[in-house]
Amino acid sequence: MTHLTFTVQDQIATIVLDNPPQNRIDLQMADELSEAVTAIGSSDARVVIIRSEGADFSFGGDIMTWPGAETRELRALFERYMSVFNQLELLPMPVIAEVQGLCFGGGFELALRADLIFAAESAEFGHPEQTLGIVTLLGGIYRVAERAGKARAAEWAMTSEKVPASEMSRAGVVNRVVSEDKLREEVLAFAQRIATGATRAHAAHKALLRTWSLGGVAAADQAMFDIAMPLFEREDTQVGLNSAVEALKAGRPRPVLEFQGR
Q1: What radius of gyration do the chain's Cα atoms show?
Q2: pTM, full prediction
Q3: Which among 58, 196, 235, 244 could bridge 23 via Cys, Cβ 3.0 to 4.6 Å?
């Protein structure tokens, strides 16, 4: 792979965008990302980190070939991007985006596929699409609306302003803002914590949130027990429940468990 790398170590998968100087997304990167996500899905990974080499996370799509292209060709390209980004979003394990520098356009839309976004203090986010006369083609505006509300999503998409990480955090788009020199360390520590957690329950929570985003509370309530009840057949759940009951009977604090992902 020439536009990204991926590794799986200690049940933590790491995808690294590496297409200097701006980590722009093109068809080759999309194909390599799809290959990485497919491999991660069949690995023993229990959490995924997606980050970038260089000063910036990503400036977005590589627009160099867009002028003059036929609409059908552009549609096929964007549909491919959408499919791959959604492939990442649908992984049955937590995905953490580690963002530094500028995170624009398709790069922002890629980060929004993560369940959690950790950003450096100097990171900036934005939708530059309207300056080109187009829209957020990979679902950015409504994924921001899902996290921050319609009003903010509309303003940011219609102005293309650079929004600092601190404001994105206050709006609920970014989970944590940390200093540049601590970003990698904090993301890794959080990933290690998640990797020893209840993997199947994390997947179930992702499924419930996805159902809620599609149909609201009523739809999530309808799906709740179909998603939740199989957990009781899992080894991790049995261990967790038994240890909690034993602790209660003995009058001692519940132990902190390291689940096995089973």
Answers
A1: 20
A2: 0.94
A3: 58
* Cα gap 89→93, rounded to integer Å: 9
Q: At what angle do helices 27-41 and 71-89 cross, to 10 degrees?
A: 30
Catalytic: 109? Answer: yes
pLDDT per position as a tens digit, 170-181: 999 999 999 999
User: Which residue type does 24 have?
Assistant: R
Q: What is the DSSP letter of 34?
A: H
Catalytic residue among 32, 98, 124, 129: 129
Q: Tell me the pLDDT band of 258, cut-offs 50, 70 and 90.
A: confident
Burial (CB count within 10 angstroms: exposed 0-12, middle 13-18, buried 19+), residue 124: buried
As to burial, measured by CB atoms within 10 angstroms (0-12 exposed, 13-18 middle, 19+ buried), residue 253 is exposed
User: Checking DSSP bridges between strand 124-126 and strand 176-178, what pairing results, if any?
Assistant: unpaired
Active-site pick, 32, 89, 98, 109:
109
> β-strands 47-52, 12-17: how paired?
parallel
Which structure tokens are listed for 201?
């329950």
